[in-house]
Amino acid sequence: MEATHIEYDTMPGTGSMMLRTAVSRKPGLKEGGDLPRFEAVINDVSFTNTAEYQAICGFPESAIVPITMPQVVAAPLHMAVFTHPDFPLPAMGLVHVSSRITLERPIRSNESIDILVWVEGQRPARRGCEVDLVTEVRVDGAKVWESITTVLSQAAKGHGKKSLPPPIPEPEPTRSALWSMGSDLGRRYGTIAGDRNPIHLWPITAKLFGFKRHIIHGMWLLGRAMAELDGDIGDGRVTVEVAFKRPVFLPGRAMFSSGEHGAGIAFRLDNPEKGKNHLFGSVKQGG
Amino acid sequence: MPQNQVSLIAVSPPDVAQRVQRSAQPAGPGEKRTRYTLPIGLQSGSPVGYRTRIAISAAEANEAALLFSLSRPTGFVPGPPVLERELFEELSLGVLSARQSTNFRGHRQVSFGPERSVELAEVLRELEGVEAPVLEGAAMTHVVFTRPYRTAFTLLLTFVGHKMGLNLATVPWRAFSKRWMHTDDIPSVGFLQHLHLGILADAIEQAAVIASVGRRAAQVFMAPFAGRSHRKENQAVMAKLHQICGLSAHDQSLGWRVGLVAQVGCVETPRAISESVCRKVGANLMAFRSERIQPGVNAEESAPAAYQERQEMDVPEELAFMAARAAYNSFVHWTGCERQQAKDLMLLERIDVLTDNGKERLRQIRKDNNGITDSLIANLPLWADLPLGRALSRNANRGRKAFALVGQRIYICGLDKNEVLKESLDSTLACQAIGAAASRSARLVELSGCINLPDDCDLLVGTCLMAGPVNQNDIGKQFYGYDDLLAQAHPTKEATSMLLWTLKAKTVADPLGNEEQLLSAKRKGALVDLRPAPHEVVTLVIGGRHRPMRREAGRTNQERAFADQGNFVRGPDGAHIPGNPGSAWPRAISDSPVWE
Description:
Chain A is of the alpha+beta class. Chain A has seven helices and twelve strands. In chain A, strands 1, 2, 3, 4, 5, 6, 7, 8, 9, 10, 11 and 12 form a twelve-stranded mixed β-sheet that branches. The mean pLDDT of chain A is 90. Chain B is an alpha+beta fold. Chain B has a single domain, classed as NADH Oxidase (3-Layer(aba) Sandwich), CATH 3.40.109.10. Chain B contains 21 helices and 14 strands. In chain B, the strands form four sheets. In chain B, strands 3-4-2-1-9-10 form a six-stranded mixed β-sheet, sandwiched between helices. In chain B, helix 13 packs antiparallel against helix 15. Chain B is globular. The model of chain B has no long low-confidence stretch (mean pLDDT 92). Chains A and B meet through helix 2, strand 8 and strand 10 of A and strand 14 and helix 21 of B.
């Protein structure tokens, strides 16, 4: 099957795509089938709400764009790919399992960026398949930022094999702080990030999709973690890897900790009462 | 007034066999968590956290000794702007932690940068009765507000000391006059506000030096805002300060008023103290807390073995001498009186448990205070106590524990108001100076207890500043015909006791559960308040805007001051208590000047 190429002059709105997500019925990926390439492009995008994004994630006000923000800016393109009529996997039910973000150099909020997003192919997982959504951000033709977002879809046949989960690093913490998240955090973040997925908004809207309460966006958790790490990250080339394990229900509390681990910094977010892990990851400089 | 030089005195640890430590363990599965078990986590905006004392060498102690006889600055010189991190650390040793009662948050602070400090200096020059010159060139000015001491204890006091039959009228009248006229049930409750302010004033002077590694000093003005007559004279200036700081009419109706103003600036000759000593002292000051338990003397039956055995340790006489010297230094410093005058005015009774009559004297105090509690409970208005399920009498009974006097050295301190007036001193200022003196003395003792602190000891000497026994005695004085605690030691004076402090040589620190009550919202009880986060009590005036300190973008402080010293309580396996080490404030802010 041929690649699907979508090009935008202006950032697409997400309202209609959200609706399409809710009502469309997709067959999923047939056994032996491959996910063809889908890509979406937009050029000359400006950062419009950097201060609001910095504020909600806890970054200090700065002319430098937080490392997680391009992902949020590119989110409508991600939606466009996942809700494209020819995209075989249903967008509803895609689970964000991990991300790898590479920042080549700090991006200033007054720089305009070109964004290219694509998916191509899949990997079988235990229950379903994993798809890598790649996002590239360029400034004047040079790649300055890239992310690989891995999502899990159960609308494909999995390999069914159990595998040991990767060990969660337990570094000697140089930071250990408890976060309190209010019930309205998902609504406030959703407004800024343009992600008003009902599972993040209200308990009742989340219940419709099988959650006991509404949950905070994974990208907020990652953004907040990066804000917490602050100067530990450094100014040069940085690679962030994160695995999302369990959602954080709202209102809620989570214990963030980080410390040196191997050649970088490991961080994790745990439930302070039950000790279960919400996410863990690492930050590496240079390379 | 010149202060005498003090030294820190090392305390000898006991034999290795007698050395015990807190060594708190997490509660096992299904086991009830108590004050002796390790907390499971900490969520706090306070810079304090669960801390441990760290060892200092004798040489470092010598260097740190200057902190206990600081003289006032005579002028400020231009210097680098104050970094946010420096301000945080200074305030962490000051308004955010200065030894206040655990259940009382009685201070708030508004801080101004160098430009507004010029304007404030002009205002301060209008004050009558300033104890030192108002200086030019301050890098910042802190205005501290204070309010009357009001807690669950003072709520209980509303019902105390009324006559049967009249109490239906006198209790509501007392409640009304407390709320609207800020009268106190008993005089010693009124002293608490002043004692706390004195403690803070002394802490602010030390904090400025420690946070700036000796480059800055604080010029603290407390006298113009102290006594009624001074406040009347300075009414207009105080009103100006209230307006500049944005103190609302509602705040004033609750009794908030300016209590002291501190100018902080760079001095021409920095104090001779090294950065490493400042860091260690700062981290230790974060760790000091009231030590109430003397092992083998007043530990609960349920306490772990470490608290049950007596230790062969004593507070060295030389240390007691230096503690007294530090106290007199402070009293002289804050009142401006001569040293001999200070010795005459500060009425002290020293009770040495291990020497003649010490135990008898303690028994007598305990017996008197228990008698007062009995009378108090017997006279509580039933119409209030019964509908509350006897909560008032239960609380009064519970107070008995708080009045226990334990330690190898116990000092009761007070004043004779007439003698103070004869010396033309303001009695409120003298009361503030008593607070300052007691806390300076306590800090000297506590830091002394860190000299060559062995790894197998939590501390070598601890202190506890207490007002509870004094308040209880005061209830007896006011309503049941008892004599003042100091009456026996000073029969020719009209003594009013105000505060007492105990010195305890020991190696095991009090249980963490005591601190947990201060720091953990989950453990918050009726009598307990939480130590404040910066944004709760400190307002920074930047570019004309009043902003709570360290509340940015929906994020508030979780940094622990002097965290680089790593003196955090750990579990038996060496693991941190989650949340306890905190997380540093963004460097982009903390490494930048607060005021450009």
